[in-house]
Specification:
- Strand 14 and strand 15 form a beta hairpin.
- The protein contains twelve helices and 15 strands.
- A seven-stranded parallel sheet has the order 3-2-1-4-5-6-11, with helices on both faces. The protein has a four-stranded mixed sheet with strand order 8-15-14-13.
- With about 350 residues, it is α/β, with parallel strands linked by helices.
């Protein structure tokens, strides 16, 4: 009798443990070496997910963000190339993923003018390859696509931009993202695949790449402070952006895939600031008190105390076409996803600047 009870108890424990193992969700994050990929990986790990990171072959060794977040050994990395159909098919067919977050892209607007065909192939056709693989081999897998506010471009409506706002892309990057955005809609409607797009407005963090203007500002201001470079050089400082914090925004990505029905959502802070305002707020963290003088290419910012020129305008940083104004309305996400940003613009700048200053302490 004791033997039977032991067997029954052991079997019961095994069933419970096996159930817990089987019920653990598995997610693929493409572009895991990027800012959002790293934050999302940590977020999902904290939720108990098994996380697999898709990484293009020539990105090997670039997972410093995973190291910074102390999760490098908790994520399995697999080769994932958006240009290769067979690779994508193999990963998705064998992975048995509950969720796929496609964050991989040629994500630099400026570079898209130099490489429009490559940008279109990666950002546009790459998403189609993922959707086709899901349709053929893993139709129950939920898919998140990273769309972008750049798709709105220079829309004539100067109010807040929502899911109902017309798109007017003005760069090869934005056009490629819009193609992917509409393909998500087609696969959702035509094949009943659970796929959705997050139309994310600008979001930053200490993990932001050096190619982005916010990171350039906080990094170069630190270098100016410590006399490593003479000044910060920028292009259009009057473009306005809706900036948020990446860690807040990856939560919204996850929430989209937890809904009963797939849909697209604008994710934004609901506040807009110019690049110049970002500079002014960041400069204070480096003890600069800026005074602006001049106009156009001759505009400069001088430190009131040292009389040193801190910021200069350079024609080399202007793009062929520029988005002047982005201002998001994420009320739909507030209502349906129960999501709101937690981090203010000032707090975001503060954490980015403090992170740079640590490098010199």
């Amino acid at each position: 009798m004791i033997y039977l009870d032991t067997v029954f108890l052991s079997t019961k424990i095994f069933v419970i443990l096996n159930y817990n193992f089987m019920s653990k969700k598995k997610a693929l994050i493409t572009g895991i070496s990027g800012q959002d990929g790293a934050y999302l990986a940590k977020f999902l790990l904290n939720k108990g997910y098994e996380v697999v990171g898709g990484e293009r072959q020539n990105a090997s060794g670039s997972n410093w963000r995973l190291k910074d977040l102390d999760i490098e050994d908790k994520v399995k990395i697999v080769p994932f190339e958006l240009l290769e159909d067979s690779n994508i098919n193999d990963v998705i067919k064998s992975g048995k993923f509950n969720e796929i977050y496609n964050l991989a892209a040629q994500s630099f607007v400026g570079s898209s003018y130099k490489s429009p065909i490559l940008t279109s192939n990666i950002n546009g056709m790459g998403v189609t390859r993922i959707l086709e693989a899901v349709r053929q081999f893993s139709v129950k897998t939920k898919v998140y696509q990273a769309s972008t506010s750049e798709m709105f471009g220079n829309n004539s409506d100067k109010g807040k931009q929502s899911e109902e706002t017309d798109f007017h892309p003005v760069s090869p990057y934005a056009v490629s993202k819009l193609y992917a955005h509409w393909m998500i809609n087609i696969y959702r409607e035509a094949y009943n695949i659970f796929c959705c797009s997050g139309i994310l407005f600008n979001h930053e963090s200490p993990l932001r790449g050096k190619e982005f203007v916010t990171k350039k500002i906080v990094t170069d201001l630190a270098k100016v402070k410590y006399n490593i470079i003479p000044s910060l050089k920028l292009g259009n400082i009057y473009s306005q952006r809706d900036w948020g914090y990446s860690l807040d925004y990856v939560e919204a990505m996850w929430k989209m895939l937890q809904q009963k029905k797939p849909d697209d959502f604008v994710i934004s802070s609901g506040m807009t600031y110019s690049v110049k305002e970002f500079i002014n707020k960041a400069a204070k963290h480096y003890d600069f008190d800026l005074i602006w003088k001049g106009k156009g290419l001759n505009e400069i910012a001088i430190d009131k105390n040292s009389k040193k020129t801190i910021v200069k305008i350079s024609s080399q940083f202007f793009r062929p076409t520029e988005v002047d104004y982005l201002y998001g309305n994420s009320s739909k996400a507030h209502k349906i996803l129960k999501w709101k940003p937690k981090t203010s613009f000032d707090d975001l700048i503060s954490m980015m600047c403090q992170n740079e200053l640590k490098k010199f302490s």
